[in-house]
From TrEMBL:
<keyword id="KW-0201">Cytochrome c-type biogenesis</keyword>
<dbReference type="GO" id="GO:1903607">
    <property type="term" value="P:cytochrome c biosynthetic process"/>
</dbReference>
<dbReference type="GO" id="GO:0005886">
    <property type="term" value="C:plasma membrane"/>
</dbReference>
<keyword id="KW-0472">Membrane</keyword>
<dbReference type="InterPro" id="IPR003544">
    <property type="entry name" value="Cyt_c_biogenesis_CcmB"/>
</dbReference>
<feature type="transmembrane region" description="Helical">
    <location>
        <begin position="194"/>
        <end position="216"/>
    </location>
</feature>
<dbReference type="GO" id="GO:0015232">
    <property type="term" value="F:heme transmembrane transporter activity"/>
</dbReference>
<protein>
    <recommendedName>
        <fullName>Heme exporter protein B</fullName>
    </recommendedName>
</protein>
<feature type="transmembrane region" description="Helical">
    <location>
        <begin position="99"/>
        <end position="121"/>
    </location>
</feature>
<feature type="transmembrane region" description="Helical">
    <location>
        <begin position="46"/>
        <end position="67"/>
    </location>
</feature>
<dbReference type="InterPro" id="IPR026031">
    <property type="entry name" value="Cyt_c_CcmB_bac"/>
</dbReference>
<dbReference type="Pfam" id="PF03379">
    <property type="entry name" value="CcmB"/>
</dbReference>
<keyword id="KW-1003">Cell membrane</keyword>
<dbReference type="GO" id="GO:0017004">
    <property type="term" value="P:cytochrome complex assembly"/>
</dbReference>
<feature type="transmembrane region" description="Helical">
    <location>
        <begin position="160"/>
        <end position="182"/>
    </location>
</feature>
<keyword id="KW-0812">Transmembrane</keyword>
<keyword id="KW-0997">Cell inner membrane</keyword>
Length: 222
């Protein structure tokens, strides 16, 4: 656990020294969401109906933007080989990497979402559903993305391949999260959607680190 804490501390320090790593996805998130009113009808009544879906699509794409570099630097500089030689658990490494990615990507997107919701004229009743859905589901995106990042860590320019691998896995998360926001906006209960997202988060926390660890071992054995 001391090595895991050191890895988390190091990655957070690197992110603090290189703010572009977490600012780029955040700016992308803002720009994508801001372009929708320019491309479609800017009428507030119309935007209110699609605001949840727009914000969630923008958050999903912004998360993908920062996944490619999750393990690549550690593979290139030999850090992963040293980790494996130390006998420490790759499961814990994968979990720690997903946590850092969420802290630098998913959490800022969640905190920024009310600003976009206000800009998109989202009904007041849906703000809570939007923030809760992002708070529960963005860790799922990071955990699933860590598997794809581990598979493509040794591939040059693997960003496109990573997107092709991960996007189909993101679709159920997108459906339930956007549905929660929509149901809240029309005054209906959204507890079942949040329940499904919570169950998916629990499964992802248990299973995806094993898959990411196996993918990292495969890359290191080449």
């Amino acid at each position: 656990m001391s090595l895991v804490r050191a890895t988390v501390r190091r990655d957070l320090l690197l992110a603090a020294r290189n703010p572009g790593e977490w600012l780029n996805p955040l700016m992308f998130f803002l720009m994508v969401a801001a372009m929708f009113p320019l491309a479609v009808d800017p009428d507030p009544a119309f935007l209110a109906k699609i605001a949840g879906g727009i914000i969630w699509v923008a958050a999903l794409l912004a998360t993908l933007l920062s996944l490619d570099s999750l393990y690549k630097a550690d593979v290139e500089d030999g850090t992963l080989e040293q980790w494996l030689a130390s006998g420490e658990s790759l499961y814990m490494l994968a979990l720690a990497k997903a946590l850092v990615h969420w802290l630098c990507s998913g959490l800022p997107l969640t905190l920024m979402s009310p600003v976009l919701a206000l800009m998109m004229a989202l009904p007041d009743d849906a703000y809570g559903a939007l923030v809760l859905s992002l708070l529960i589901a963005t860790p799922i995106l990071s955990l699933l993305g860590s598997v794809g990042a581990a598979l493509t860590a040794g591939v040059r320019s693997g960003g496109l391949l990573l997107s092709l691998l991960i996007l189909p896995l993101y679709i159920p998360v997108l459906i339930f999260a956007a549905s929660a926001v929509y149901h809240a906006s029309i005054g209906m209960s959204f507890n079942s959607q949040l329940g499904f997202l919570g169950a998916m988060l629990a499964l992802a926390m248990c299973l995806t680190p094993f898959a990411a660890a196996a993918a990292l071992r495969l890359n290191l054995s080449r």
